[in-house]
Amino acid sequence: MSERNDPAAFLPTAFTVAQARDAGVPRGRLRGASFAQPFHGVRVRGAVEANSLSASCRALAPRLRPGQFFSHETALALHGVWMPEWPYRPLVHVSAYRPAREPRTHGVVGHRLQVREPAWTHLDDLPVEDPIRAWRQVGGLWRRGDIVAAADFLISGTVPLATTAELRAEITRMGDVRRGILGRALHDVRAGVRSARETRLRLLLVEAGLPEPAVAWNLFDSRGTFVAELDLAFPRYRVAVEYDGRVHAEDVAQFARDADRWAAIRREGWAHERILAHHLDGDGRVAVGIARGALLRSGWTPGR
Q: I need a labelling partner for 189 at 20 to 30 A (CA). Which of 28, 52, 153, 155 fits?
């Protein structure tokens, strides 16, 4: 069948079976290899990108009814918030405020929420929950460290998606969960964090009994000239600890700039410790040992 005579050619990439029927597409045509079937009642031209939450959301979108929207960890992922690390895999969560009903189909976690004024918005034509509300919603799903990292993301960056006060107000209005995990997480939230692993490193150091480091601390030389922004700094002991994910490992120019930066920090009399990915493996004790050693050499006394 030529494209001009094929009614399926005029449908969007993702569509419902009902839409195809209304367009005159024969039911048998939808069973062919040309269309993927990611959800009941939905067809996608071609294939849905594997392990892509956003692709799954785009595939499900035609099936959503008025009042339904992506929520919980799905909403946070669509807002760009850091997700828990592998092997954790976020699921597709869709909610609706009463009296609307949540979807009930395989591959989707549905939620019917308390009566409340909706606050969801559209991102790339997808209905997505407000990030502050979505952060509270993952309180029932995630570990405390991941909840802290998500809040760190929300309050950081050039254009933060939330403030600490707004997150606290959401808890006050709608209540805490799991023995107060959200309030405890909020106590550890800090602005200026650049990655989820930086959050994890900071929490590991504090929980191990080390002093709490300053986040995004600006280092200046004796003439007041800016030297570097330090991810985690212990100014009293002139120790900087930074997570180095080696994103630019293959970028020779970037690596050279990084090396010059490290040298400039050391010239100011600071100890500079780089924590690499393998240092955080397991319980992260190797990373803690590196930071502890630098602090001890710089005059820190445990328990002080």
A: 52
Range of the domain at 214: 196-297
Token pair in block for residue 158? 């050039």
Q: Which amino acid is at 65?
A: R
pLDDT digit string (tens) for 129-178? 999 999 999 999 999 999 999 999 999 999 999 999 999 999 999 999 99
Amino acid, res. 77: A
